[in-house]
Specification:
alpha/beta, 7-stranded mixed sheet, 5-stranded parallel sheet, 14 helices, 32% helix, globular
């Protein structure tokens, strides 16, 4: 029996294969580099522009004149080449791709390390550098070494204040930041079916923090409903029982709120152990936790109350923002004193919209807390949305009572 990655790529683990790429995308940062590499290669005519996407998400709106000029040039190139463009305000590339673009069984490559997020839809999705992306745009294909697979066997159901982000942090802590290098993490087990699509996207997103090539779920009824909501028909993928290189078990019923402390994602503590740590800013958003389910959870916790520290909320896409407006979720967030920025990556990469000052502390729902990432000399703690919400109200890291 084959693993899901082996089935999608059509070869056993360890084999080298050439594969047509169904969707290849870059963002405003890597898109500039991809375009430059294509110039150096002398490529002007792209053979499959219908498979390509550009998503402006990293520095939107532009923060300097130089950034604006580069983005303007990239817009012109996309339009002249027939590349689908999601412009500033459309949202984060991984979220935009999850909204009816990526389907089960696809081979998806993005010029961003968190492209593995899209494995939540039953696709083989992975990130590459800008030069590799240029080669894919020029040819429509690329090569892969089919990865060995580690099974993440999920049992039970989440309870109390725990949420999928806590599961993701538990997984990274178990494997370490290099424990799954060039492996696929296949999320399986009876507990997998109880994870929502938003939660699956979170789990697959953080697979790369273990060094994994991708994270992947089998497409099932949850996947079919999600895609149907975006007007796309899909079928479940048959679950097989392959031989895995390794298996780790995670009992969802035993998961509690967790926090990754500076400056490593795999240095994880129970939230209770770091409760009382003063914070200067809370950030809810990113390709990890900027989806509607996340904003709704934040709104439920802060409704009718006021945050005690500056709290920045960035929806992952325009569709997420629109739904939050229509349901009143955004009003609750704003009434609580939170700031809301346009859909995109926000301050996650440390370029704008909430960069931290030296000595300041941020509690973030993002996926990385490396030193100096969100500001030189700042410290970043990573948590779930529920933990971030109660901490914003308390002005210090706190433990949620409900998710």
């Amino acid at each position: 029996m084959s693993t899901l990655s082996e089935r999608v790529l059509g070869a056993p683990a360890g084999a080298y294969v050439d594969r047509e790429v169904d969707i290849a995308f870059a963002h405003d940062g890597t898109g500039v580099l991809t375009r430059e590499a294509l110039r150096e290669m002398g490529v002007e005519q792209l053979p499959h522009p219908e498979r390509l996407r550009l998503v402006f998400d990293h520095i939107v709106p532009a923060n300097t004149g130089t950034t604006a000029t580069l983005q303007a040039e990239l817009r012109g190139y996309a339009r002249a080449s027939g590349i689908d463009l999601s412009d500033a305000g459309g949202g984060i590339c991984h979220q935009v791709m999850s909204e009816g673009v990526v389907r089960p069984g696809m081979v998806v490559v993005g010029a961003d390390s968190h492209t593995c997020t899209l494995g939540a839809l039953g696709a083989f999705a992975t990130g590459v550098g800008a030069t590799d992306m240029a080669a894919i745009w020029a040819s429509g294909a690329t090569w892969f070494r089919v990865p060995e697979t580690i099974a993440v066997n999920l049992t039970g159901r989440l309870g109390g204040p725990a949420e999928p982000k806590d599961v993701a942090l538990a997984c990274v802590a178990r494997l370490g930041m290099e424990g799954a290098t060039y492996r696929a993490l296949e999320f399986v087990g009876d507990g997998a079916s109880g994870i929502s699509m938003d939660g699956r996207l979170t789990l697959c997103n953080m697979a790369v923090e273990t060094g994994a090539k991708t994270g992947i779920f089998y497409a099932d009824a949850v996947t079919v409903r999600h895609l149907a909501g975006h007007g796309v028909a899909a079928s479940p993928q048959a679950v097989e029982e392959p031989r895995y290189e390794r298996e780790i078990a995670i009992d969802l019923s035993g998961i509690v709120p967790l926090v990754a402390v500076p400056h490593r994602v795999d240095t994880v503590r129970e939230a209770e152990d770091v409760a009382g740590t003063p914070i200067d800013q809370v950030f809810v958003g990113t390709c990890t936790n900027g989806r509607y389910e996340d904003l709704a959870r934040l709104a439920r916790i802060v409704r009718g109350r006021k945050v005690a520290v500056r709290t920045l909320v960035v929806p992952a896409s325009r569709a997420v923002l629109a739904r939050a407006i229509a349901t009143g979720v955004l009003a609750d967030i704003v009434d609580a004193g939170c700031m809301v920025a346009p859909p995109g990556c926000g301050p996650c990469l440390g370029a704008h919209e909430g960069v931290m000052g030296e000595g300041e502390v941020c509690l973030s729902t993002a996926n990385r807390n490396f030193k100096n990432r969100m500001g030189v000399g700042a410290e970043i703690y990573l948590s779930s949305v529920a933990t971030a919400a109660v901490s914003a109200l308390a002005g210090e890291i706190a433990v949620p009572e409900v998710a």
